[in-house]
Every structure is written in structure tokens, then in C-alpha cells.
Amino acid sequence: MLFRLALLSLVSCAVAQDLGVPLTWRKFNNSRPLSERITIAQNAINQMTPQLNSATGEFNAIGYWQSGNVWSVLANQDHLAGTTTNKALVLNNLNLVFSRWAHYDQFGTMTMLCGGPKPHCTRTEHTATPRCWRMPSTFGLMSPASERINCFIFILGSQLASVITAAEASAGKQPNKAFAIKSTCGGATMAGGVFWRPTTDDQSVNSITTGLSAFLAEYTKNATYTSAAILSANWIKAHNINANNLVLDTVNAADCTTSPATWLFTYNSGKYIEGLNVLAAVTGDSQWTTLMINILNSAVKTTVWQGSDGIITEGVSTTSNNDGVGFKAVFIRGIHEAWTRNPSNTALTTLIHSYGDVQYNALLDLAANGSTYSSNWHGPPQAFTSWGQLAALDVMTSNINTN
Ligand SMILES: *[C@@H]1O[C@H](CO)[C@@H](O)[C@H](O)[C@H]1NC(C)=O
Ligand SMILES: *[C@@H]1O[C@H](CO)[C@@H](O)[C@H](O)[C@H]1NC(C)=O
Ligand SMILES: *[C@@H]1O[C@H](CO)[C@@H](O)[C@H](O)[C@H]1NC(C)=O
């Protein structure tokens, strides 16, 4: 079944995509000048930073991985605005967080590649879930260079511990797992998949842990990492894309069972889109760009997480935090990467610009209370919440560029 779906998605890749902007989208343009967009985004950040817990480097009322996303957007804000407004805060707090945990891991175990938690884990899984900061966005801010190298080593070690190599797939055994793994699922090799958790009994290979490794190849220019990134990109392509070109969640490496077809989350497509853009740049192989465009075009138009107005409806939670609230921020960051990496594809950049403006205008028109934003992007405005603010930050900062 999975194999058939994978074949279908390959077939659809060959069809030229209509990247047109749906005319039903609400307000897909914007005339705010650059200086105003920079101010709007920085003002949103300035509402978040008072929530910093200076003892932990995390923010009140949101968790570890969500706090990591705040640091990412602060770094991106300086990068896109050409400022150093947030630099010291980012540096000091990343150094604080990194000093608090061995391998930067809150849970004291070797972590996997940076990902995010799943909204559907049981409580037990949840507390044991390893998470880590999404470091690539902040590499450029880290000094001295040895810190960046430490990050590379960390990610390498993490990946080596949790990735399934070609030899391991063939042998049906991964050295850090206490169970036999399937060599193939649905006829495709399991090589390149990255386990969700490093514990010896965790059987889940999922898209969010598998989708990232191209950054390491780009920063190091080391062919070992390029090969690993290609293997992982192929794993998602073969196993975890549905017939509508949306990235699925999990495959069980012990028995090939999959997460339900309805487990569709923006961040799985977003992180893969981001990784494929980097991989296309590293390899010069246009198949990754083609695949990325198909997924992006589907993801911004699917009815799974937006209506005909185009406004994202995933992660609406006005009274309490949950992991899903932060997913759309990861998605927005991923499609921003596509915007920066494909300047000559004007149909694509127009689509991303328009989708970004839909979210931007919704937040500003429907969900804003001063410079604070509800996690319900259709509104109404409400009093400040850390998680609502987190979800909005990437929209504000990305629109400095994409508008
Ligand atoms: C979008 O463009 C139209 C036509 O140029 C214009 O009338 C409208 O004011 C613009 N909307 C925004 C939000 O800038
Ligand atoms: C590339 O990375 C591998 C794995 O860490 C390492 O053994 C090798 O020395 C690296 N190559 C270069 C040229 O740095
Ligand atoms: C706007 O935020 C303030 C401060 O958090 C709050 O007191 C007020 O009720 C909010 N307004 C609305 C319309 O929710």
C-alpha cells in the first residue's frame, strides 16, 4: 500500500505544477514598507522576551523545543533585518542552555536530530521524548567557531546513533536498538530513516527527525554528510509522502506499521521542504527542487490545515499550550527557506509571498491585540499567551523577506 502511494507521488511529480495563487485566499498582498515590517516583527519579539526565565533560557508557559524556536526566530530576525538587536540575548541564552545539559539534551540522554514533539504521544512517551534546539539558524551567531564545531559533532553523534545505515538495513539490525528492524517496508529500503527516540526500545522512524540532515552537509561540505542527507531524503520520499504530496508522520521499523493517514501536521512537510532546499543546493540535483515544489504547492493549498481563505487553522489553542501550536511556525520557516533559495522561480516566490501575506494580514487584522497575537489566526484577539506569540513570530519575521 505504501509502495503504491509512493509510486503515485512519483508519477504526480512528473506533472507540471500549477503554482497559481487561489483567488479565494483572504488578502494575499500587502503594501507595508520594509521598515514597518521590521518594526512589526521586532515588536512581536519584544512582547515575548519578558517571558524569559533567565535561570533556564526557556520561556514561561512554553516547553523546551518551543523555546528553541523562539531563539531561532530571534536569530533570523537579525539576519533578515540586518541588525544585531537580538544577538547578545540569543548568544547568552544558547550558551546558558548548552551549559545546563550534557549534549544540550534536557533529558540527559543522547538526543537525535533536532525535531519537535508529537501532539499524539502518550504522557510517558512525552516526558521521555528527547528534544533539542534547532541549531542551524543560530550557527552564524555562535562564536567562537569552536562552538559551531561542537554543534556539528553533536549532530553527527546524534545522527550516527539514530540513523539506519544501508548496511544496517540489509542486516536487519541497528546497533542501538534491542529489536530486529525490517530491511524494507513496502518494498523500499529503510536505510536513511532516523529514529524518533534513542532508547533501545523505541521503534518509530519519523519524518521530523529524518528531514534535517542537509544543513550539516552544507555547513561542513563533507561528502559523508551529503550522502547521509540524500539517503534520508530518499527515505521520506519512498516511505512517508501521501498521494496528495503531504509528508506523513511515522513508520515503525520493527513491523512497518504506519501512523494513521490522518496524522498530517504542517511541520512534517515544512521541515522536509526546508531540508530539500538545502539538499538541492548542496547536490545541484534538481530532482530535490521538483519534489520540494510539489510538496510546498500541496501544503499551502491542502484543506487539511486551511480553509478556502488560506488562513492556517492548525494549532488553535487559546486557553492552554500544546505542541501543535508551534508546528505552523516550523512550517512557515520551511517555506521561507524555499523563498530564499529559488529567487528565479517567480511563480513559486509569488505563491510563498501570497501565502505569507494571508497569514500576516490575518494576524494583524483578526488576531492582534497591540503587538501580541492569538494562536487562532482567525481571531478574535485575546490577552497575551506565550504559545500564541511563539506561533506568530515566524510569520512576522519571514514577511520581512517574502512580502
Ligand atoms: C492589494 O492589491 C490591491 C490591488 O493593487 C489593492 O487595492 C489592495 O489595497 C492591496 N491590499 C493590501 C492589503 O495591500
Ligand atoms: C567527514 O566526516 C567524517 C565523519 O565525521 C570524518 O571521518 C571525515 O574525516 C570528514 N572528512 C573531512 C574531509 O573532514
Ligand atoms: C489585550 O491584552 C491585554 C493585556 O494582556 C488584556 O488585558 C486585554 O483584555 C486584551 N484585549 C482583548 C480584546 O482581549
Automatic annotation (TrEMBL):
Which Pfam family is one of this chain's hits?
Glyco_hydro_76
Xref: InterPro entries = 6-hairpin_glycosidase_sf, Glyco_hydro_76, MUG_Protein
Which stretch is the leader sequence?
Answer: 1-16
Q: A biological process (GO) annotation for this entry? A: carbohydrate metabolic process
What does the UniProt keyword field contain?
Signal
What PANTHER family has UniProt attached to this entry? Answer: MEIOTICALLY UP-REGULATED GENE 191 PROTEIN
What name has this protein been given in UniProt? Endo-1,6-alpha-mannosidase
Phylogenetic lineage: Eukaryota, Fungi, Dikarya, Basidiomycota, Agaricomycotina
